[in-house]
Amino acid sequence: MSDVKARLAAAQKEIKSCLSDKVIPFWLTRSVDEKYGGYLTNFDENGEFNGNGTKYVVTQSRMVWGFSNLLEFAAEESKMAMEEAARQGAHFLMNEFWDDKNGGYFWQLNRDGSVADPAKLVYGEGFAIYALSEYAHTYKDKEALAFAEKGFDLLQCYAADTLRGGYYENLENDWSPSPAGAYAGDRKSLDIHMHLVETFTTLYKASGKEIHGRKLKEVLDLVFSHMINQEKGYGYNQFDLSFNQLPAINIMRTWNAERDTNEVIEEPTNTTSYGHNVELSWLADLAIKTLDCDRTPYEETLRKLLDHALSYGYDYENGGVFRDGIADQSVLVYDKEWWQNFEVLTGFLNGYVLYKDERYLDAFLQTWDFVRDHFMNMEVGESRQLLQKDGTPIVADMGNPWKGIYHTGRALGECLRRIEVLI
Predict the structure, then answer these.
(1) What is the C-alpha to C-alpha distance for residues 257 and 55, in angstroms, rounded to an integer?
(2) CA distances from 211 to 168, 169, 180, 248 (A)
(3) pTM of this prediction?
(4) How many domains does the chain contain in total?
(5) Domain CATH number, residue 284
(6) Long-range CB contacts for residues 72-79, cutoff 8 Å, separation at least 24
(7) Which residues form the domain of 83?
(8) So what's the pLDDT on residue 417?
(9) What is the chain's mean pLDDT, rounded?
(10) Residue 329: pLDDT above 60?
(11) How many CA atoms are closer than 13 Å to the CA of 403, on its beta-carbon side?
(12) DSSP annotation of 177
């Protein structure tokens, strides 16, 4: 045990420095849009702004969340700046993204706040609720919590599928379903429902209201019953509205459709994301703890999600996880993307906290070495987006319309909280 504590203590020191001295200052000194409000997120490999300031509600929300949730890790002299960065971003969500006519949050704004895409995507609605709930919890802001609750109520009114369960995910400005096919008005996904688990967990933490806890339990159970192969421990990607599995396609207004990429999957197939599966394991564990409910129906699956990733998607030579694979057969895409590899830091470490299985500890530590040495640009202070298997950069940018403080900062903060408990 002393050796384990020594290894964890060494990682703790490095991770704390990475978060407090690199990631938080990177975004705190660059991202606040002093002219229009909200955040700028497009930064090249040298940390220079290189975009037009396009503002997606997902990324803007994640920045608010980061400047709220990570306050405890900021240097003392930066805490007031963190609060102000969070405050102005929360008000940008409530004042600019909020649709006064139809309710809900627009999908995309131009830099100046004019509407670029007024759609009501549940992915974006959920992250706005998530961010304002976290902001309200950290800074005791009643207005932000009221907006979060209004957003939640609209999801129940317009997006909840009361016939088949779950939520319609892709909706237009007036809350009508988006077209079928590439705009996916006829599909549901693990991705969006998994993040609703995350959203409702944070809302319930902030409000304590029974209805928020009840809806959290409902969507958590739906994910486990319809969207995971519980026998083998991996998530399915896409479904029709009745939760029949469908071959995954690129859907408009998603990261998969808009990302800079290297390897691509030419034909639709039964793919699974190793990063998503491990992320789901720790997010579900957090939801169970927040609900304070019986763990028994979930416990075995939480562990199998980790084991599947280690069996099929983990790089034992270099550390970290590959991007995509075929269910429980083989890796399809050997590139490594930042978000999956930061998320599995938390997931594998959380697995070690739960089960004391040193395979999870080893995977966490080896992945941290890979993240530290290859993903992180320590001179600039953030993570590169996409690497080859061996760590060679493919896309070295620090930020883009989808990439902010969320995955990097959250993973580092969550790992520090768990290491503190362990040692």
Answers:
(1) 17
(2) 19, 21, 31, 33
(3) 0.98
(4) 1
(5) 1.50.10.10
(6) 72/413, 73/16, 73/19, 73/20, 73/24, 73/412, 73/413, 73/416, 74/20, 74/24, 74/28, 75/20, 75/21, 75/24, 78/24, 78/25, 78/28
(7) 2-422
(8) 98
(9) 96
(10) yes
(11) 29
(12) B
